[in-house]
Backbone:
């Protein structure tokens, strides 16, 4: 009995084990799968694996970017620091709190916009789509100056417009409360890619389905809810996963716009911003890598969780499991 | 359509891959070789031979020296042009060394340099870089004393050389000193009917009062005007609509602000330990500048500094600031204010302190060709074109006269004697000097700066108290 | 007498039902389009700031009462004899050949455009450009309350200057080449890999997919140094290779996206073709890809736009080679530490925007078709 269960366990661990139960056809298909994956597998081994493993190794060292030759192992020292560093908790909390607002917005707004830009009643679709997409292509440094000028409390266009309406606008970039809406606004300006993927998905919804629904008397709203939405869930799922990963890694806009200290008053000290500062300003790449692997585990956990939920709400006509 | 497009794409990509494979260097190839192959590989795709050849092939193998610019001055468009010319002239002047220029924007220069060093592909020469920049890279410099033995240093100002000694070793060749003074906009003084600030140390202001912080405050308030034309001394003054400011500390941090009241630092050594504290005159300076921004309004606070009104962070050049405390290097970038001159810094308690910037160019400690690098370094440090375009007053006595002559050609009629005299009142310790656990301590000081600039009702004493606490904790990390 | 046939009153209305539906549709079109237009206006207002800045004069940007649009102050060049006024302890001069700004000044003859030659707080001196021989006009009051005369003048010179100063054609060529090469690479490789993930079942597939996603979860900051060291070691630093070659080996963003699209394509056609004896490549080529056309275009655009604006990696790998750098790097010339020039940055950025926007516009053909194939493409 023991021997039997051990053998079963072994066959699971044996890399060739899972292949055993397959029929010749299935086996051939599986080989084809690996063939198609091979470009990525090669690229992964050549370009990704070494740097990833290296960064994991860094996390057990005192790697200082200015003195690479003095690197040495310090065991779990960095991980110990991780547990006592108050900024880890604070920056994680800032990141998660921002995510709770920003992620839904980063999905819903492009979705609504894509629906609008796909509406039958919209005239001049191509021009509209192009113009709504355009800000996504504005280079970072240009965008930073745009927003610094646009949101400036004194001379910014937004506050001038509000003043024209009779409202005294806040100091968007220097107020601990208003800086978050400002960042979300800036984020929305780069939503072109999310919009684009959703638009692309909407193109693939078979027209017959809409026609059938119209005959049944369904209005545009119900058609969207019952036909479009379910059929584009794969792409919504894609955007959700990437949005969450992107928010875990969020830092470049606040870094350039508001500086390395998370101004105002530490309100924008996002986790990845702190990480970048540790690694490249405090030149402590060892601890920086530790923080990065914490982020990796957290984001990976959330991602796997999301993939687990996918079966309940993401609709794949081709069936994921087949 | 796809049937037409996709084969084309495949063909193109195959072509590209083939081009790459043909040109990819063998592992044995040297870095120099890789550089030359690179010119070819990409041009294979667009238009071949569209570019002029960058390096003419020479039979003899040259020593390749890479010069990294970006930690300080040297990235303005017109500076880049001069630098390119100088490098070209140098390469044509001899056939042993090939000097390669690497200019990186300041935004990414620190990260880039760190990546290159840690990634095992460091440059040979780095600079111009100031005290601040070197503090962020304290460990990377090659001590030059041994390599400079064959060179005559007697023409150098001794103080400038001493400024670049760390633990007694020279870590770079000083290329410029930049005394600080008050830049003032004559048109704005004329409009207010105010006399210009004095050009000589010890001289009183035109009304006979001493030229000190109080006098500066007084005239700066008169020079601060709102949209209705009321100045900051008027009861009708509207601080929400200021269109002209009296004074600004241009591009410096809290240590730089406070140094106008006298040199100092945020730590002292007691019984062999670093103790964080705020010198009394610095405390007073912070109160003064906070009030200047938020109570008397003659200096722009954060929201104003970032506004278009002050040229998005270049206040004096906007023409809307009457007086700016800044360094000689600012002559690099004063294009928009037609009528300016320079005056001496105001005294505090009868004492003048004009903070000093110095720049050097150094050599990376791991360079393979230190002798060649020193040769290049010497050439650069004596090049008048570079010094002019950097606004760097040479610490080499024989070059100083020529420097001011060329500065006079660029900006005629300025009182350059102010700059020379200011060198007698420099700050010791320097306002950019080292602090224990520098990167973190400096980061914390910047945080204090942001509080000062952006918080309307800041309790300055409380903020300072918190600063001292945090600094102490940061210092303690490196002393246990 | 002829009689008209009886027509029920409602009939005329219903007989024209078709025009009425058209009418209703017109209202819908107008409503939706107008709504989109208003939305667009708000959405693009920061872009308006960008365009306005790109056309502005640097000095104009800092003028407190300047309009939002690009303009210059109207000026007058004085030609008369030198004039002097002594006020208090100092002498003010009006010099021939110097230009002075025009202001709208209320006078007895109504509001007139006069040149402000001497500025003072309580009183100022003007010269009438029409009658300069009259000399100085003394005006009591504060000149800051007067409006300057602004003339609309977009500064095209900014674009000309940027074009030459940073060698824009060269930057454009480099950017385009890097972006297109990478986009082609990622399109081909990601399609193959995504097809493998979406259509084949094999042991380890899910784990591999999670690893694939994992490669984009780990922040790039910590893999940067080893990656750079690797490329430096094989001599790729200073070339386009690190910016293009890795894209020929697929990446997670695009594989994930294409996988999602492929999974949304029903399998019935695949299976039919398989029974007909078609191999995996044939099925991919003639069944899956025709149905995923919008997704392929999306991936191409994705990479193209990303590469167009990527600046950190080009900076790191091409810092010694200005002749190979893309626009995203060249634009930083105008962001020097103590001399940033926002108007030049925006002018450069606008010029750099033209190509991607045109490509995006054209690429939409693929979208507009709404490709739906009901049979195997023959």
Residues:
């Amino acid at each position: 009995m023991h021997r039997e269960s051990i053998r079963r366990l072994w066959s699971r661990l044996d890399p060739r084990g899972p292949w055993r139960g397959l029929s010749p056809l299935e086996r051939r298909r599986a080989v084809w799968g690996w063939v198609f994956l091979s470009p990525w597998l090669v690229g992964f081994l050549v370009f990704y694996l070494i740097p990833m493993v290296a960064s994991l190794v860094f996390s057990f060292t005192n790697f200082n970017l200015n003195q690479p030759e003095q690197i040495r192992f310090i065991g779990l020292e960095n991980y110990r620091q991780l547990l006592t560093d108050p900024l880890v908790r604070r920056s994680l909390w800032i990141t998660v709190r921002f995510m709770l607002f920003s992620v839904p917005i980063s999905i819903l707004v492009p979705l609504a916009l894509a629906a609008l830009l796909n509406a039958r009643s919209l005239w001049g679709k191509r021009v509209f789509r192009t113009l709504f997409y355009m800000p996504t292509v504005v280079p970072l440094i240009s965008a930073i100056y745009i927003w610094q000028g646009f949101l400036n409390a004194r001379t910014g266009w937004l506050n001038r417009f509000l003043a024209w309406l009779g409202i005294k606008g806040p100091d968007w970039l220097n107020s601990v409360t208003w800086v978050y809406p400002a960042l979300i606004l800036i984020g929305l300006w780069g939503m072109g890619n999310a919009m684009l993927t959703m638009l692309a998905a909407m193109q693939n919804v078979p027209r017959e389905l809409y026609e059938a629904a119209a005959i049944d008397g369904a209005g545009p709203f119900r058609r969207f809810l019952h036909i479009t939405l379910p059929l584009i869930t794969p792409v919504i799922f894609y955007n959700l996963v990437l949005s969450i990963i992107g928010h875990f890694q969020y830092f470049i806009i606040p870094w350039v716009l508001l500086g390395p200290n998370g101004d105002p008053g530490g309100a924008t000290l996002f986790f990845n911003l702190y990480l970048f500062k540790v690694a490249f300003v405090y030149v402590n790449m060892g601890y920086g890598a530790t923080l990065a692997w914490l982020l990796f585990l957290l984001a990976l956990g959330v991602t796997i969780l999301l993939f687990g939920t996918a079966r309940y709400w993401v609709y794949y006509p081709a069936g994921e499991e087949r | 359509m796809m049937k037409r497009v996709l084969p084309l794409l495949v063909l193109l990509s195959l072509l590209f891959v083939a081009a790459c494979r043909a040109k990819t260097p063998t592992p044995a190839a040297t870095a120099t070789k890789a550089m030359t192959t690179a010119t070819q590989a990409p041009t294979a795709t667009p238009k071949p031979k569209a570019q002029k050849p960058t390096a003419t092939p020479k039979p003899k193998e040259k020593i390749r020296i890479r010069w990294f610019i970006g930690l300080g001055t040297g990235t303005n468009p017109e500076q880049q042009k001069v630098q390119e010319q100088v490098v070209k002239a140098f390469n044509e002047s001899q056939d042993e060394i090939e000097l390669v220029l690497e200019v990186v924007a300041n935004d990414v220069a620190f990260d880039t340099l760190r990546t290159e060093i840690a990634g095992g592909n460091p440059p040979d020469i780095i600079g111009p870089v100031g005290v601040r920049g070197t503090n962020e890279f304290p460990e990377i410099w090659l001590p030059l004393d041994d390599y400079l033995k064959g060179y005559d240093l007697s023409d150098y100002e001794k103080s400038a050389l001493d400024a670049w000694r760390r633990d007694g070793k020279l870590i770079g060749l000083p290329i410029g000193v930049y005394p600080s003074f008050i830049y003032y906009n004559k048109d704005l003084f004329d409009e207010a009917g105010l006399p210009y600030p004095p050009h000589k140390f010890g001289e009183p202001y035109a009304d006979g009062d001493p030229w000190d912080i109080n006098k500066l405050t007084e005239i700066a308030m008169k020079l601060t005007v709102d949209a209705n034309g009321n100045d900051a001394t008027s009861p009708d003054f509207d601080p929400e609509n200021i269109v002209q400011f009296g004074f600004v500390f241009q591009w410096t941090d809290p240590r730089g602000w406070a140094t106008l009241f006298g040199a100092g630092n945020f730590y002292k050594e007691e019984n062999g330990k670093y103790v964080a504290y705020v010198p009394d005159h610095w405390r007073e300076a912070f109160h003064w500048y906070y009030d200047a921004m938020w109570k008397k309004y003659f200096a722009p606070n954060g929201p104003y500094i970032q506004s278009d009104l002050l040229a998005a962070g270049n206040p004096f050049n906007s023409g809307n600031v009457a007086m700016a405390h800044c360094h000689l290097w600012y002559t690099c970038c004063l294009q928009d204010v037609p009528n300016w001159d320079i005056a001496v810094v105001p005294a505090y308690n009868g004492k003048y302190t004009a903070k000093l910037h110095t720049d050097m160019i150094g050599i990376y400690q791991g360079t393979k060709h230190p002798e060649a690098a020193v040769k290049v370094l010497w050439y650069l440090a004596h090049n008048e074109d570079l010094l002019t375009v950097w606004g760097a007053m040479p610490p080499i006595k024989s070059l100083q006269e020529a420097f001011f002559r060329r500065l006079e050609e660029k900006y005629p009629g300025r009182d350059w004697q102010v700059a020379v005299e200011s060198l007698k009142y420099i700050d010791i310790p320097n306002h950019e000097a080292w602090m224990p656990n520098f990167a973190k301590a400096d980061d914390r000081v910047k945080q204090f700066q942001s509080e000062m600039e952006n918080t309307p009702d800041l309790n300055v004493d409380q903020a300072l108290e918190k600063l001292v606490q945090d600094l102490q904790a940061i210092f303690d990390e490196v002393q246990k | 007498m002829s009689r008209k046939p009886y027509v029920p009153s409602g009939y005329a209305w219903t007989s024209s039902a078709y025009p009425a539906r058209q009418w209703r549709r017109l209202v819908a079109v107008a409503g939706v389009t107008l709504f989109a237009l208003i939305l667009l206006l708000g959405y693009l207002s920061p872009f308006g700031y960008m365009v306005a800045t790109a056309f502005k004069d640097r000095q104009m940007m800092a003028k407190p009462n300047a309009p939002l649009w690009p303009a210059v102050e109207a000026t007058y060049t004085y030609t008369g004899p030198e004039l002097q006024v002594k006020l208090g302890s100092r002498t003010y001069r009006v010099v021939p050949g110097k230009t002075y700004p025009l202001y709208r000044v209320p006078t007895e003859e109504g509001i007139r455009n006069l040149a402000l030659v001497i500025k003072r707080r309580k009183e100022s001196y003007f010269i009438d450009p029409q009658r300069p021989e009259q000399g100085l006009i003394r005006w009591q009051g504060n000149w800051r309350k007067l409006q300057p005369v602004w003339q609309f003048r977009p500064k095209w010179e900014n674009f000309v200057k940027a074009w030459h100063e940073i060698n824009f054609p060269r930057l454009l060529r480099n950017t385009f080449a890097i972006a297109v090469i990478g986009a082609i690479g990622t399109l081909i490789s990601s399609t193959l890999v995504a097809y493998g993930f979406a259509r084949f079942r094999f042991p380890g597939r899910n784990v591999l997919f999670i690893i694939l996603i994992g490669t984009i979860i780990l922040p790039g900051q910590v893999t940067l140094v080893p990656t750079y060291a690797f490329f430096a070691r094989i001599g790729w630093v200073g070339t386009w290779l690190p910016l293009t070659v890795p894209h020929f080996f697929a990446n997670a963003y695009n594989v994930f996206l294409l996988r999602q699209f492929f999974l949304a394509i029903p399998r019935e056609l695949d299976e039919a073709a398989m029974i007909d004896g078609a191999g995996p490549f044939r099925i991919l080529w003639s069944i899956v890809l025709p149905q995923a056309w919008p997704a392929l275009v999306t991936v191409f655009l994705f990479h193209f736009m990303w590469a167009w604006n990527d600046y950190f990696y080009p900076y790191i790998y091409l810092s010694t080679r200005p002749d190979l750098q893309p626009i995203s790097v060249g634009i930083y010339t105008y962001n020097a530490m103590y001399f940033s020039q926002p108007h030049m940055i925006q002018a450069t950025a606008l010029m750099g925007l033209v190509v991607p926007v045109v490509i995006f516009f054209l690429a939409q053909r693929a979208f507009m078709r709404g490709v739906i194939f009901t049979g195997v493409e023959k």
The domain at 86-313 of chain A is CATH 1.10.3720.10 (MetI-like fold).
